[in-house]
Specification:
With about 190 residues, the protein is α+β, with helices and mostly antiparallel strands. The protein has five helices and eight strands. The protein has a four-stranded mixed beta sheet. Strands 3-2-5-6 form a four-stranded antiparallel beta sheet.
């Protein structure tokens, strides 16, 4: 009987600890660190320019967003890193709002990870950098570069055709497609 009461007390304590968590169940938690102190404000911004949320950079460089509206997730938004002292000093990063923990480090490079769609966004930018690194000023013409980027964007749009990141790619990069690749995307 004594073991039963001890076990009940332990289980009750665990239940209280988990039920008092400050993060709602099913939320998207974005935690990050900005190494550049000039970027003191961060904003989550919707496609139409509506600011969804804001956060300040802490003294240690950290910031945090908690998005709990599961009715609109998954969704791609833009995370704006802003210098409050210079309106022109802004960096933009697409981020997926989806259930889970998203980690962002903004330093010399941007590191984005934590959920399936955010991992896909990070892979997109890594692959885009690889395409860029493959060019040489001596051997690549502008037309070759345009075709290579178009093929890359089309491939990523088709690869992500079943998720919101694919929708974002179409919105952000369809104008970069050649007419031939645009016809493929449109199924013509």
């Amino acid at each position: 009987m004594k073991k039963f009461f001890c076990l009940t007390a332990v289980l009750a304590t665990i239940f209280i600890l988990f039920s008092c968590s400050s993060t709602p169940k099913g939320a998207c938690v974005i935690e990050g660190n900005v190494a550049m102190p000039e970027f003191g404000m961060m904003y989550l911004v919707d496609y139409d320019g509506t600011k969804i949320d804001s956060a300040s950079r802490e003294a240690d460089g950290s910031f945090r967003f908690v998005h709990a509206d599961s009715t609109v997730m998954p969704k791609i938004v833009v995370l704006e890193f802003r210098n409050p002292e210079s309106e022109a000093d802004v960096m933009y990063l697409p981020v997926a709002l989806e259930t889970g923990q998203v980690d962002i480090v903004l330093d010399e490079y941007v590191d984005l990870s934590g959920t399936p769609l955010n991992d896909e966004i990070a892979l997109f930018f890594d692959d885009l950098q690889a395409v860029s690194d493959g060019f040489s000023a001596e051997i690549s013409t502008v037309e070759e570069m345009r075709k290579a980027y178009s093929a890359f964007y089309l491939g990523k749009m088709l690869e992500n055709g079943d998720n919101v990141f694919g929708d974002y790619l179409k919105l952000a990069y369809a104008r970069e497609l050649t007419s031939e690749d645009l016809a493929i995307l449109l199924g013509e």
